[in-house]
Amino acid sequence: MTDTRPAVVLIGFMGAGKSAVGRLLADRLGVAFTDSDAVIETEAGCTIADIFATDGEPAFRDLEHRTIARLLAETDGVLALGGGAAMHPGTQALLRRHPMVVHLRIDLGHALARTGDDARRPMLRRADLAEIHARRMPVFDAIATLVLDTADRSLTQVADVVLAAVASAPQV
Ligand code: S3P
User: Residue 2 pLDDT > 90, yes or no?
Assistant: First the structure.
């Protein structure tokens, strides 16, 4: 894995397990794990909830896109994106050029059961959350090179399927 671009990019709705699977995957591949949300929070010096509250969602999406564009160019290993990141047209254009984008798919019921009422996730308070979920799924499916249902799979099972896909992808 000599390329600097991330070997695997994980996208998916909140609660899909992007960070947990990403860590496991990176561990198994012996590579670094990067979480775009964590990078944004470290660099901004505040939480994503703070950014939403102070600057609003559009400002967050812009910052998120710029951060991810940099991470796609500069990081290797496994990169997990925030749950709405792949809706940004600029980010979509970058992801379409990437050979291994995995959509960890989760239905809304399982997603909410996993996240609970997490105050760190401002999108969970949106009244139109079901519509947001419904809008995102086909977009994420279309961008991904691999779509994986996570609702009935353990973290290890999900990581195993992604590992097998990485192993059989010559360009990664
Ligand atoms: C968001 C999901 C969050 C985070 C932000 C917005 C979304 O990431 O990027 O709160 O729009 O679904 P996780 O999917 O890691 O919770």
Answer: no
**Distance from CA of residue 141 to its chain's centroid?**
13
Instruction: State if residue 12 touches ligand 1 by the CB under 6 angstroms criterion.
Output: no
pTM of the prediction? 0.95
What is the 74 CA–ligand 1 centroid distance (Å)?
22
| Short-list 18, 134, 5, 131, CA closest to 82 | 18
Average pLDDT over residues 113-136: 94
pLDDT-based confidence at 117, cuts 50/70/90? Answer: confident
The answer to whether the CB of 106 is under 6 A from ligand 1 is: no
Cα(57)–Cα(118) distance, integer angstroms: 17
Residues 124, 34: contact at Cβ < 8 Å?
no
**Number of the ligand 1 atom closest to the C-alpha atom of 81:** 15
pLDDT cut 90: percent of the chain above it: 88
